[in-house]
Amino acid sequence: MAGVKQIRAARVVVLRLDGVDAATAAERLQRLGMVHAVGLSSATELSVHIEGGKVDVVVIAASPLPSTGVDASPAGLLPPPAAAIRAGIPCLLLVDSMSRTLRRSAMACGYAAVMGVDSAPRLIYRRVGALMQRVRRLGRARAAPDQIDAPDAAALKS
Q1: For residues 92, 83, 55 and 105, what is the CA-based torsion angle, rounded to 10 degrees?
Q2: Which of 2, 23, 57, 61 is the S-S candidate for 129 at Cβ 3.0 to 4.6 Å?
Q3: By three-state DSSP, how is residue 78 classified?
Q4: Average pLDDT, 10 consecutive residues per value, the chain (158 residues)
Q5: Residue 93 pairs with which residues in a beta bridge?
Q6: How far apart are CA 61 and CA 72, in angstroms?
Q7: What pLDDT is attached to residue 146?
């Protein structure tokens, strides 16, 4: 898991897509030490934060949608915000009731993790840390081939 300093410095956005109060959820994370937790109520506000480079993890509080004409996954989930996916920012989905099917559907939609909305704030805190660690590891793995290739290229030139 990510170090305590990294988690405290994390720029976490809690996005409310239905009746869940994002400001309250952000406040709970702030009490645990995530001083940069912010509650938003629209994907437009989220896009502004992402474009400004102010987001490390997005926590989305939403319930599965009833079967409507909305573009959703088979389980009725809204997909994660496109801006977050494009930027490579992990999205944690908080749902009213967990099931294996819902978890699989959410992961297939592009969410990095799924938890119950009633999960203890400390568990959400830990999951955010784990997501940050995963992003950092992926970044190192992507950078590693470049670092290996660079010395080899220099050796070939001499």
Answers
A1: 10
A2: 2
A3: coil
A4: 60 69 77 80 82 85 54 62 88 86 89 88 86 82 57 48
A5: 60, 114
A6: 16
A7: 53
pTM passes above 0.70 = yes
3-state secondary structure of 16: strand
**Which pLDDT does position 142 carry in this prediction?**
64
Give backbone dihedrals phi and psi of 89, rounded to 5 degrees, phi first.
-90, 125
Q: What domains lie within the chain, and their CATH numbers? A: 4-157 (3.40.50.2300)
Residue 87 to residues 4, 52, 82, 135: CA-CA distances in angstroms? Answer: 24, 11, 9, 11
Comparing CA positions, the residue from 29, 45, 20 lying closest to residue 127 is: 29
Q: Nearest 5°: CA angle at 80, between 118 and 76?
A: 70
5/12 Cα distance (integer angstroms)? 14
User: Cα(108)–Cα(30) distance, rounded to whole angstroms?
Assistant: 30
Tokens for 107, please give them.
């992961």
Cα distance between residue 47 and residue 68, in whole Å = 25
Radius of gyration over every alpha carbon of the chain, rounded to an integer in angstroms: 18
**Are 33 and 6 a contacting pair, CB within 8 Å?**
no
